[in-house]
Amino acid sequence: MANLRIEHLNKRYGATTVLNDVNLKIEDGEFVVLVGPSGCGKSTLLRMIAGLDGASGGDIHIAGKPVNTLAPAERGIAMVFQSYALYPHMNVRKNMTFGLKFTGVPPAERERRVAEAARMLRLEELLERYPRDLSGGQRQRVAIGRAIVREPAVFLFDEPLSNLDAALRVSTRVEIANLHRLLKSTIVYVTHDQVEAMTLADRIVVMNKGCIEQVGRPLDLYYAPANLFVAGFIGSPAMNFFEAKVGSVEGGCARVAGPGFRSFDLPTASLRVGDTLTVGVRPEHLGRGEDGPFAVEGVVELVERLGESSFAYVRRADDRLFVAEVRGRQTPMPGERATFFAAARDVHVFDAASLRVSTQNDA
Amino acid sequence: MPESVSNITAQMPRAKLAGLLLFFLGPAVAIYSLFSIYPLVATMALSTYTSDPSGGRHFVGLANFQTLLGDALWSKPFWNAFGNNLIFFAVHMCVQNPIGIALAGLLSLPGLRLKGFYRTVMFLPTMLSVVIVGFSWNLILSPLWGVASGALKAVGLGSLFAPWLGLESSALVTLSLISVWQFVGIPMMLIYAALLNIPDELIDAARVDGLGHFRIFFHIKLPLVLPTISLVSVLTFVANFNAFDLIYSVKGALAGPNFATDILGTFFYRTFFGNQLQLGNPTMGSAVATVMFFIILVGLCLYLFLVQRRIRRFAF
């Protein structure tokens, strides 16, 4: 159990910068998920915490102790890899005890830890088997077991579910969440799957191009994304964006206008006439029912029916598409003309620098 | 959905199927039979005959083998050659393959610079002609004008020098080491390729488990390339018991001094083709060749049943 502090961390390979001045504080017992598109540097960051890759600059502290110069095994971490990385020539028991042998854990203690981890992960029946005789889900549990017996201060997970099929992914996700509840340990978890991020994390770190875009609790990221990237990355299908400009400013309210949607007033003091804006509304917040301050109209082009709801792809007057999620049985028909509304608190406005414009709606 | 092959062949007329099989398999079967199976069978057949001075051949059954293994005139050089061949093989197994494994391990270290250069340099002797290798080493080790004694003197070890290739006690081991020098690139390349196959994440996992490069090599990499090492051992066995060219190019067919470097290959050569005062004897030579074939066959069978079945290839 320990906290983790990352200060001004940089990683460069020659001229390419992989991580750029990353700062992050992870509290004791926190489950933090690093999420971002491929190539954003999340896996590199995890490998640097593990000590598998060196830093080009900056510091990593685990439990208040600088670990930059320490080998992976001396950092008090354990890692679960995407490919499980079980030793193919050792059975499950040896896979779990192998590392302990080299860190000076006495045999009796090793056996106790393996028995405990096996019980926790329902691996008792599998201890004498070899990895080749295990299913993907079982291998994943062994990999987690191998991490648990190290009794690390920090668990590191590198996309641990991406090699599993969809059903197993859901159940293993629940198991990992339970494990965290049981062990109360600090976990850093890398994924590109935002569902995993949203469901597992105490806090999510959204990364892009080697930088941290936003750190926050899952619902904060969803309801108040700090910038355009986070707004577009979190949520599926992605948020609809509309180009807009500030038409007029009057008494602490800016009039936001743009092609394809009805102009609305934004209660903010920070905007000037002529500022370029981007208005974002999530498909699931666009409804056909009650009137809201935000309204957009178009012709339904395509409907994807999922059962509990349908996604309507709607073409606006200015020939752009947007997506609206329609709940219930009244699915729109292609060719139909429809108007969708959104409540004020579901309308996100971003300025020319892609940053969120804070409004009184946020409160 | 595409139709399965067995369905297609089942619906085909018999004659057409036979024609197809002949078309695809015929050439390979014909060439293999002509150049591998026929010579082997013909050699075995010839080993059961004897020729009289008039040139006529008579069937004698296994009499040639009785002579070869029972008559001291034949059995002594035969067992000498067999024993030398075992030593030749043992030196390869104990020197060539461990060095090959070690070089492969070094080459596969992350962060090693000039990998391509080392790889090429160490593989270079393998690509040289055996005749050139034999001739060069003959010159290098020559006590009259070789550079070996001078080189040893230069580092203060001049007293260690001896005419290794000329001494009965050291000629065979020296020749074996020359062969090791030439062919160490082959186990190195095969094992290097196997080492590259081990996924990086597995090595990362071992590092997180607290192992250094040395332990990673012994506890993780080595067990995982064991199948390749056993394959290399079998290749070494077959190549060593068929060896001939290096001995012949360095020592000639008499494999001197006093047959100290005589191996089955050179023994067979003298028997079959004759040498100096010894007349060529194709039927006796075929008997030697047949015995060599069975030695290798027995060795391979032992390997297959005792080793290969216990070794498992790992899928990553």
Keywords:
heterodimer, A: Rossmann fold, five-stranded antiparallel β-sheet, 19 strands, 35% strand, elongated, B: 316 residues, mainly alpha, MetI-like fold, two-stranded antiparallel sheet, 70% helix, flat
Global Rg of chain B: 25 Å
What is the CATH homology-level superfamily of chain B?
MetI-like
Structurally, how many domains make up the residues of chain A? 2
How many helical elements of chain A?
8
Structural class of the secondary structure composition of chain A? alpha+beta
CATH architecture of chain B: Orthogonal Bundle
Unreliable runs of chain B, pLDDT <50, ≥5 residues?
none
Structural class of chain B: mainly alpha
At CATH level 3, the topology of the largest domain in chain A is Rossmann fold
Strands of chain B, total number = 2
Greatest chain-chain contact: A-B, 26 and 19 residues
| CATH fold descriptor of chain B | MetI-like fold
* Percent helix range of chain A: 10-25%
Lateral strand order in the biggest sheet of chain A: 6-7-8-3-9-10
Whole-number radius of gyration of chain A?
A: 24 Å
Q: What does the overall shape of chain B look like?
A: flat
CATH top level of the largest domain in chain A is Alpha Beta
Average predicted local confidence, pLDDT of chain A: 90
- What form of chain A results from the Cα inertia axes? elongated
State the name of the first-level CATH class of chain B.
Answer: Mainly Alpha
Classified in CATH, the superfamily of the largest domain in chain A is P-loop containing nucleotide triphosphate hydrolases
